[in-house]
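Structure tokens please, single chain.
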Amino acid sequence: MGLDLFSDVAELTAALVDIESVSGAEGPLADAVEEALRALPHLAVERVGHNVVARTELGRGERVVLAGHLDTVPLNGNLPSRVEGDRLYGCGTTDMKSGVAVALRLAATVPEPNRDITYVFYECEEIEAERNGLRKLAASRPELLAGDFAVLMEPTGGQIEGGCQGTMRVEVAAQGERAHSARAWMGSNAIHSAGRILDVLRAYEPTRPVVDGLEYREGLNAVFISGGVAGNVIPDECVVTVNYRFAPDKSVADAEAYLREIFAGFEVTVTDAASAARPGLTHSAAAAFVAAAGAEVRAKLGWTDVARFAELGIPAVNYGPGEPTLAHTKDEYVEMPLIAECEQRMRMWLAGRTNVAP
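Here you go.
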């Protein structure tokens, strides 16, 4: 189970993949990561649950955080890993053990970076937020996450994705009055009234706010609908569950106010919400990262843990070698040359060089 952090980054990725770490069972992988990092004298290492944090203490003027989750979704007949051509297949190859491998290689082979670095390898990203290791660290040991800028090694296909969208789910309820379906005129059909909720959703045109130079595309969609009492009863309530994906120019409170406005006249109940995160590309460390990576910069159309860094006042981006459209699929794979390219670009960033060809 030992990890060789000085091996080729694709080989290291395969070794990480072959240590099964479905959410909640990251212990063996966290053990292997901790053991490998503690062997590096230039790092101070702490273990909190199945979260491993390693830090340089060089007194640099800036500190950056490189973070990646250790867990994967449940297996689907896709272990052990296998190589076909330039592709490495296996559970977690793209999401996100290839990104973790890049960070581990940097931890081992860049002992004197131009900025102090905190490496964070955490548990339970793929399941409910209450168990998320980064969330737990932010709540119990926020000093371990302190920094000026963060890179979350999420799969982005080697592109830089700035910030992330916020998300909110609400239940929009249409009310009616029960009656026997043979005498429907004596009641009020809530399902029919819910048509006005659907009219709002059909008429919605996605806004495309530009935040810190990146264009986001918002979304408003029904994801569930429920109503009805019995086959001979006019329903007195129909509930449409709506998911709103909003750009980082809005707060959670702004998003809620917007939904209550467009669904005025209906009962609106917020059931789940997570803040968006601004790209933060104006920070000096972020600008240097963009220059060194030499990659396209685009908005993150989705929610990731960069929002947790934003809540701590740390600008963050998503950047990793995995292809996001392959995440969680049975035939998940990562292009091995892209892992090496990602490692090389980040290495140049931490050495203070820019515009580097892979």
